[in-house]
Amino acid sequence: MQDLLYFSQQLINGLTIGSTYALIAIGYTMVYGIIGMINFAHGEIYMIGAYTALIAITGLTALGLAWLPLILIVALLCAMIVSSSMGWAVERVAYRPVRGRHRLIPLISAIGMSIFLQNYVHLAQGSRNIGFPALIDGGFNFGSGDGFQMSLSYMQITIFITTLICMTALSLFISRSRTGRACRAVSQDLGMANLLGIDTNRIISATFVIGAALAAVAGLLLGMYYGSVDPLFGFIAGLKAFTAAVLGGIGSIPGAMLGGLILGVAESMTSGYLSGEYKDVISFSLLILILLFKPTGLLGKPEVEKI
Amino acid sequence: MAANNFRHALFCAFITLIISYPIIGFNLEAQGINVTLTGADATTIVMVLLAAVIVFLFQMFREQIMGGLKSIPHPLPQSNKEPMAENRRAKIESWVLTGIVVLALFWPFFVSRGSVDLATLVLIYVMLALGLNVVVGLAGLLDLGYVAFYAVGAYTFALLSQYTGISFWLALPIGALLAALFGLVLGFPVLRLRGDYLAIVTLGFGEIIRILLNNWTTLTGGPNGIGGIPDPTLFGMEFGRRVKEEGNTSFHETFGIAYSGEHKVIFLYLIALVLAVFTALVIRRFMRMPVGRAWEALREDEIAARSLGLSRTAVKLSAFTIGAFFAGFAGTVFASKQGFISPESFVFLESAIILAIVVLGGMGSQIGVVLAAIAVTILPELAREFSEYRMLIFGAAMVLMMVWRPQGLMPMRRIHIELKRQE
């Protein structure tokens, strides 16, 4: 019984983290699916989302707003707007001019952008980590007596529900709306979509905006869950989310969701049963192994090399 | 058209405001567990508004500005000129390089200790950048975990000197060979991967090495690092005030001169200089050898190169291993110079800096890379008041280079004929 409780606790923690990874991973996978580049600066956009949310929460609380859902919704909207604008601007400044060049050039440009954004926030907000207020506390406890107590906090429930809403909205958007259909068309064949009168530049911008908005949601959720933000925290999270995207098969949206959940669970199991210090090693090793043995990921389509 | 332009410009200016005002305009301050929000001072806000206005004006008159920029004659008019014959150019280059090296040999005796120390660091970066240049510039493999091999070299020396008391001169080849071995072992499986996947795998590898160094406390001392790494000796002569090891003599006593701390600094600088020149020469040789040509061929067109009978794995692996070898070299010198190393020195940012040097200098070009290494290391020291903006400028420079001049400041030039475009 104790073991089962401990195991479920790790599972819940893993799924919580994993669902936020999935949110970030969607940004990577959508961009990769359409223009075939790794958006290295995506982790930074997520970090900016977290900072904006924290600024909005602090500002609203200082203004005397006390109704929690309103604060959270306004903060979420602010974070999404700022992050999306950032995503749009990054694509415009750093990626569009180099699109279609040799594969390494957009990647180096993206690394440059990532360093730039990290230091932009570092200079504006300082390098120390800043505490994120725990707005949602409390939760359910299972297990009794002096044994191990499994807890499911309200924060974790919030994360699950928010992620679920975002994922459903995204799936509906991609499968039903006009822009979503255009997105799918562009990811299948950019040139052909262009010929058929789809404004591909607009669709690519839209992809960056959607990915950035979801990253901002993850930024708010993970910021509150971890309880602090600092300018570097986008880097590792971005790398993990990229791992998730690759794990699920880069370019595939359901793959990113699945990959995020698997990675999150793998990580929390490692820190639960082995050692917390090595959980990053596990996720990077996982990344290397997948790329070596199954580069297409779990749900990805194999890429045919054309000569 | 004008109305459309105006709308677009207004939109861009608005976006600029959105992405800069919330982050720059408010300051979060942590006071204990409470976080307070303060507005930034008036000048910052004026700057943000000014930036928006500039973006607006630029987008509004974009075509005129771009047209104006194009009509300015190119500062380096050589781009349309035929390149010099290769042997003549090589001769000029080698004369220039010899001159620089001779100058560099005598230079440390006339300047302050601080600048010699800085110059040693520059030389370490030159070595690293030359090594990475083989991997990224010549072979076209984007390696984002290059710093891992640097760490292997540094930690090899530190650990061996701690446990076996090995000397610098013995550790130098061992560190380099061990780093090369790491390159070989890592390269063997991953080099089948496509360019951008390779970049991520090497990045992951670099992080794994750093995390291991950080957490394997019993061996590496974890975040506390390893100290007391010995200085190099000159034929058994030590540069300290007192001789530490049995059987050694001290430099100042042997030559009967007064002890001075500068001797050690200059000696280290000279070692670094010799090793950097050695690195440059070896890689220069490699570039002219069939394997060097094969690197470039594979970078330019993998399918064509393979159909001509080049083994993809062998060629890529040789580039990767040679790059790692020189990183190990640089790592050993670095450990000896600092006397203390910790995982802090081997973060991803370091890889990015070395990559930035290669990119700025012009991928594949040795002179360009050397000049870029000097510029990137020295400029922040000269402009100390701007030093906190160093990484910001780095990032922006990398993006701008890729957009405007992806071949770098001094690209490698080869004899080639350009076909005239038919009108």
Automatic annotation (TrEMBL), chain A:
It comes from the Bacteria. It is a multi-pass membrane protein. CDD domains: TM_PBP1_LivH_like. Keywords: Amino-acid transport, Cell inner membrane, Cell membrane, Membrane, Transmembrane, Transmembrane helix, Transport. Belongs to the binding-protein-dependent transport system permease family. LivHM subfamily. One of its GO terms (molecular function) is L-isoleucine transmembrane transporter activity. One of its GO terms (cellular component) is plasma membrane. One of its GO terms (biological process) is D-alanine transmembrane transport. This is Inner-membrane translocator. The chain crosses the membrane at residues 20-38, 45-64, 70-90, 102-121, 154-174, 203-226. It is found in: Cell inner membrane.
UniProtKB/TrEMBL annotation, chain B:
Residues 5-107 form the High-affinity branched-chain amino acid transport system permease LivHM N-terminal domain. Keywords: Cell membrane, Membrane, Transmembrane, Transmembrane helix. It is found in: Cell inner membrane. The keyword Repeat does not apply. InterPro entries: ABC_transp_permease, LivHM_N, LivM-like. It is a multi-pass membrane protein. The keyword Electron transport does not apply. The chain crosses the membrane at residues 6-28, 40-61, 92-111, 118-138, 144-161, 168-191, 197-213, 265-283, 317-335, 347-380, 386-404. One of its GO terms (cellular component) is plasma membrane. Pfam families: BPD_transp_2, DUF3382. CDD domains: TM_PBP1_LivM_like. GO terms for molecular function: branched-chain amino acid transmembrane transporter activity. This is High-affinity branched-chain amino acid ABC transporter permease LivM.
